Amino acid sequence: MEVQRSLEQEKTSGKDDVDAVRTGTVWTAVAHIIAAVIGAGVLSLAWATAQLGWIAGPITMLCFAVVMYIAACLLSDCYRTNDPITGKRNPSFNEAVRVYLGKKWTWLCGLLLYVNFYGTGIAYVITSATSMREIQRVNCYHKRGEKAHCQTGTNMFMLIFGIIEIVTSQIPDFHNMAWLSVVAALMSFCYSFIGLGLGFSKVIDNRSIKGSIVGVSTKSASQKIWLVFQALGNIAFAYPYVVVLLEIQDTLKSPPPENQTMKKASMTAIVITTFFYLCLSCFGYAAFGNDAPGNLLTGFNEPFWLVDFANACIVLHLVGGYQVFSQPVFAFVEKWATQKYPDNRFVTKFYAIKLPVLPALQLNFFRLCFRTLYVISTTAIAMAFPYFNQVLGVLGALIFWPTTVYFPVEMYIVQKKIEAWSRKWLLLEGFSMVCLIVSVLGFIGSIEGIVSAKLA
């Protein structure tokens, strides 16, 4: 829900929102951050660790955690312009970019975010379809035995998920879907903890720890390099929450200054999520070794009811998650269309449809057509490229450097008036360049993975 504000709220008057009641604390901020971070990306971490091995895998995750904390600290100082106590608030990521870097960078930032939202929708179609297929597969094996032929495709399940999203996309806006977001957040915690428990249980059953120091063995060095790069993209997808950090910070009460509270919350939340990620990825790798599946839950068949429940939680989470990432796009396009064609009845006219028991439905033909076509397009692309880890890698690499590192660094430099070529400037820009290289490598490796999978 917080993402919506980051793209819709443009405060051009320069007046601070002094009338808003802010009651947030360190612990409410921690809860928001954890809810924003834990999602479908955690399911790929065991696979990413398998590509990197027992040493490089955990170290890479710790490095990403450090990068997240540094970026969070830099951005939290940009919440208020000039003064951390009395300066004007910047209550959203886009608003902060506009204030510090100007209108052109705001457009680029918005474009990157919208591309990420659209791509995340594609990834959610793939993930949901995989989970629905797993429910069918696990039940089949439970009834017919492990030697039964239970493998099916995902296209049918993608169509089912697409139909569900066409219906849920007609929810007018975020104000009407708070319940869906709450359900989605609860489901993400359920399947993540189930995955952790199943991995731990399998390690106990195996009575051994699988895996190796160097990770998965490949036929060639180049293939190993591509997989390592792809793993970087997958880890990057699981971490960033910086795009909603300022929205979370805008809920905090003051005093103490919001940036101090936010830094404490970020440290606490990142420590908790990193510990959880390391447990999930390491137990998953220890359970399956170099055969760790791309989606951790696809590796378990028993207890079938618990595996079914975990996969059902994924589907329910992503039904709501798809809307969380799609509603900002819907709002932007519909606002633009209304302003562009204010006299066009197809765009602006609403028709009240009374349904039994339910409140009246406000039907708008432009909204119906655009949102339906949007869902169809994400479903079609997902059916064309149904590659879970590769798609997550592309999305993680694409959004990691620009939004998580580059914009916070550049805004911090402007905020603190750091002189070019000073020691602090060189450290910040060097930090940004290293993250850019990681992002590029992850992107290239994931694109290569998509191409290879498609050709195969």
From TrEMBL:
InterPro entries: AA_transpt_TM (IPR013057). It comes from the Eukaryota. Its main location: membrane. One of its GO terms (cellular component) is membrane. GO terms for biological process: amino acid transmembrane transport. GO terms for molecular function: amino acid transmembrane transporter activity. Residues 22-450 form the Amino acid transporter transmembrane domain. This is Amino acid permease 7. The lineage of its organism: Eukaryota, Viridiplantae, Streptophyta, Embryophyta, Tracheophyta.
